[in-house]
Amino acid sequence: MMIRRSGVPAILTVHGWVMDEAITALRMNPRGNFHYIFRIINWILHRLIFIPLIYSRVTAIARIKLEKNGINGVVIPNAFITADVDKKVANCKNLSFDDFTLVTYVSVGGSLIKGMERLSRIITEVNKRTDRKIQLLVFGTPVETDNPHIKMMAYRDDFLCYLKSADMIILGYEMIELGYAAMEAGYLSVPIAKFKSEFEELEDGVHGIIAESEEDMIKKLVKTIEDPSLVREWGENLRAHVLKTRSPQVIGEKWRRLILEVTGMSPDATGKG
Length: 273
Hints:
Elements: H1 2-6, E1 11-14, H2 18-28, H3 36-53, E2 57-60, H4 63-68, E3 74-75, H5 82-89, E4 100-106, H6 110-129, E5 134-140, E6 150-154, H7 159-165, E7 168-170, H8 180-187, E8 192-195, E9 208-211, H9 214-225, H10 229-245, H11 248-262
Parallel strand pairs: 1-2, 2-3, 4-5, 4-7, 5-6, 7-8, 8-9
Helix pairs in contact: 2-3, 6-9, 8-10
């Protein structure tokens, strides 16, 4: 409440699906994830008291974050820092795979709730329909699976080295925003395979595969495996899109205009005296 009394505008940025992630964590391991109870209480207080009374604006990196959390706000995507990726991949060993290789990254959230079972079905079916084998490397939160074409990689410092050497990154759920792993893939010219979402910003056949259904994803993956030139073209297109829409300059300008708005200044102000 000190913020409100001070007269200084406050902006709240929401990350993730707050309640969904907390409830999922508690279901997976009630005792080990007991601290998520406090996150739920904290979020209820924010919804009922803090957001209406304290904050001038609420932001999120994607529309889905606002909708899943039941709040109104402004969408400002994450900026992408290319230097971070350049540094991490500078000393990567040359990884090569015999199989067509997909990479995915899962955590406590949409990717873990919906994604892995769907991806397992897709990988199994694609392997039935093509002579060239396809494998999926899963990074992040380990998930139990008996699928021989899926390898659990857990959390690794050399994730970007594997991503750089992969053919595509695949997402098993409707991810509207470009998450950081997807932006890293794009910057490394690795195209994406994902399911079409309500506010889709990527184009099917331009940035990768944007599928309407599981069957659509399977058919398009089979076609892609048999025509590797598509992967190279899509990868370059996705790289150009990431650099154009997620640069610090572009995202910084969005923040500048929002801050000027909440402080009552003209959006055309330059800040130069």
